[in-house]
TrEMBL record:
Ranges where the YCII-related domain occurs: 1-109
SUPFAM superfamilies reported in the protein's UniProt record: Dimeric alpha+beta barrel
Protein name (Swiss-Prot/TrEMBL): YCII-related domain-containing protein
Protein family (similarity comment): Belongs to the YciI family.
InterPro entries given in the database record: Dimeric_a/b-barrel (IPR011008), YCII (IPR005545)
Gene3D superfamilies, per the entry: Dimeric alpha+beta barrel
Amino acid sequence: MDFVLLIHGDEMLWDAFSESERTRMAEAHRQFGRAMVMAGVKVKYGAGLTRSREGKLVRPDGPAVAGPYAVGREQIGGIWIIEVKSAEEAEAWARKMPYAPGDIVEVRPCDPTA
């Protein structure tokens, strides 16, 4: 089954990181991706995202609206799409992911019919 691991975090906290802290987190995620592959997980995609203010919310019946969109301070900052045997295995990998302070990871199955 395919699962998406959505990394939610506070962009203001990330913006306060030093350049070396950002570099360390990026390297930690590269190592995490390699660890999944070495363990036999099929990593279909992984990426950090730009700030929500750089995106646009598009609706079919109106103009595109610039971000951020969430009511709270948390935004989606990165994603991994992985193929594993079960939701429990996807959750186990989500727990091993490098977390910035305050981050949470949403684990959601991909819909094979979509």
